[in-house]
Amino acid sequence: MSKDGDEAPGEPRSEAYEVGYGKPPKATRFGVRAQPNRRASKQRSPNIAALLERSIEARIDGKITKLHPHQAMLHGLFKRVVAGKIPAIKLFLRECKRAKLLDPPPDIVSRSVIEVPHGTPMPLAVRLVKHVGPPPWAADVYQQFKSEYERDIAHIEQLKEQAKAACRSVMD
Predict the structure, then answer these.
(1) Residue 65: φ, ψ to 5°
(2) pLDDT digits 0-9 by tens, 58-86
């Protein structure tokens, strides 16, 4: 056996190895390695999807209620938004955009500019769009609505003349 005791018994003696600063004993010079934990490797990894689907308890307005984890996250996020935290506001707006809450309602989107044929009176165009849809219109449908519109205009003019005549007779 050597004087520093780092050789195993029965081993032939090699050159002398001095233990000292920067020269640890051969048995521990590379550190003691931990043996792998066989029990830990047999354990299954956590099922993240199952954790996210499980409801959790949260206190809202002083009452404990069960919520989906995403709802609980949104409640906490909203508290930070109300407190004025800029990163929380950005994240909240991203979540709202992802949920399509910032898109305009469909009735506003349907309101747009409609080009009607030149010379079409506006009341006639409104009636056609309301009953038939936006242009282009079929020629027979357009003629039917136009003749009805012209009859209505003529009838209104006739009623105006009758009202004027009635006023004149009362004034005389």
Answers:
(1) -130, 160
(2) 888 889 999 888 888 888 899 999 999 99
With contact defined as beta carbons under 8 Å apart, do 52 and 73 qualify? Answer: no
Report CA-CA distances (Å) from 93 to 13, 39, 57, 88, 89: 75, 46, 25, 9, 6
Q: Are 27 and 47 in contact (CB under 8 A)?
A: no
Residue keyed to tokens 């109300």 = 82
Beta strands in 37-145 (DSSP E): 56-60, 63-67
pTM of the model: 0.35
Element (H, E) at 127: helix 122-131
Burial of 128 (0-12, 13-18, 19+ CB in 10 A): buried
Torsion angle defined by CA atoms of residues 153, 158, 159 and 162, in that order, rounded to the nearest 10 degrees: 160
CA 16 to chain centre: 72
